[in-house]
Amino acid sequence: MIRLLSCLLPILCLGSLSAAEATPKSAPAAPAAPKWNKLVPQTPEGWSLKTLVVAAYPEHTVELLVYVPDATGTWPCVLDIHGGGWQKRQVEADKPMMERLAQRGFVTALVSYRLSTEAKFPAALEDCKAALRCLRAHAEELKIDPERIGCMGGSAGGHLSGLTAMTTGLTEFEGKGPFPDQSSAVKAAIVMAATQDLVAANATKSTESAVLFFGGTAAELPAVYAAASPITHVRAGVPPVIFIEGEKDTLKIGRAEMMEKLKALGIETEVHTLKNAPHPFWMRDPWCAETVEIAATFFKKHLGEPVLK
């Protein structure tokens, strides 16, 4: 009998535990990742969307889509350079970001540059610079202050934004596009999720998109890859540039090294990393809203506020 009771004792004691105490506790559930909310372009109230032809080539007509305020005055301007691996036209996907930025006090514009399937580098860069000259040539009708223009872009557009900014003042990159009497300079730039050293990024094997864009591999065209790398052109006098990256995106080669070169020259630069953000974060909420907030703060600092009349 004593032996039987001793065998039953652990069972009786276990039975006295509450259900909560007897059930193993599970680890707390991980917070759900933010959902991708698709954004649809919609011209904001109080603004008009205008289309300007920058240049017409047999392969493509380069255009500017410009959000112009209905009010009277002059505004700082920001040019967006879309991404897409240099081979896809993603102007529509960038519109919501630029619509929101316009509402923060800017004339905003998007350029449809020639893709790698239409013309090889440096055609895309020359189109971006021609677009900036076009904005200045039409500054009065677009209500732009020509002295206060910046640029931004993501992915392939981020590469072109960085390159446009870093080659400010270098006439060999202007090309033979229209409005040669106007400047293509920018006072500030934002680079989103983009490699800045194409030599290092393609050292082992050139990507398919790079080969299509440049017309050959880095081994075949080392000087071209170097000239196309924003980091190559960092020097005194280039405009301030900040970087916005997604926490879930891949490493952007050359960004950290480029920042070090800028800092050594005393040129303003910093990186913003958006939590849980994938590539391309600026096309979806909640990250589009975060991107616009960062961009508005940065551009207001360097381009200023609109002057209303």
Brief digest:
The chain is α/β, with parallel strands linked by helices and 309 residues long. The protein has 11 helices and 11 strands.
Strand content: 15-25%
What is the level-2 CATH architecture name?
3-Layer(aba) Sandwich
Element pattern in H and E: HHEEEEHEHHEHEHHHEHEEHE
CATH homologous superfamily assignment: Alpha/Beta hydrolase fold, catalytic domain
N- and C-termini, Cα separation: 102 Å
What is the average of the pLDDT values? 91
The shape, in one word, is globular
Helix content: 25-40%
For the record, the count of structural domains works out to 1
Q: CATH topology, what is it called?
A: Rossmann fold
Outline the biggest β-sheet.
Answer: 9 strands, mixed
Radius of gyration: 26 Å
CATH class: Alpha Beta
Helix-and-strand structural type: alpha/beta
Low-confidence stretches: 1-27
Please report the number of helical segments.
11
Number of strands: 11
Overview of the structural elements:
The strands form 2 sheets. Strands 2, 3, 4, 5, 6, 7, 8, 9 and 11 form a 9-stranded mixed β-sheet that branches. Helix 3 (91-102) crosses helix 11 and helix 4 packs across helix 6. The model is unreliable at 1-27 (pLDDT under 50). The protein contains 11 helices and 11 strands. With 309 residues, it is of the alpha/beta class. The chain has a single domain (43-303), classed as Rossmann fold (3-Layer(aba) Sandwich).
Break the fold down into its secondary structure elements and pairings.
Elements: H1 2-15, H2 19-22, E1 37-38, E2 47-56, E3 61-69, E4 73-81, H3 91-102, E5 107-111, H4 123-137, H5 139-142, E6 144-154, H6 156-166, E7 189-192, H7 198-201, H8 208-214, H9 222-227, E8 241-246, H10 255-264, E9 269-274, E10 284-285, H11 287-303, E11 307-308
Parallel strand pairs: 4-5, 4-6, 6-7, 7-8, 8-9
Antiparallel strand pairs: 1-10, 2-3, 3-5, 4-11
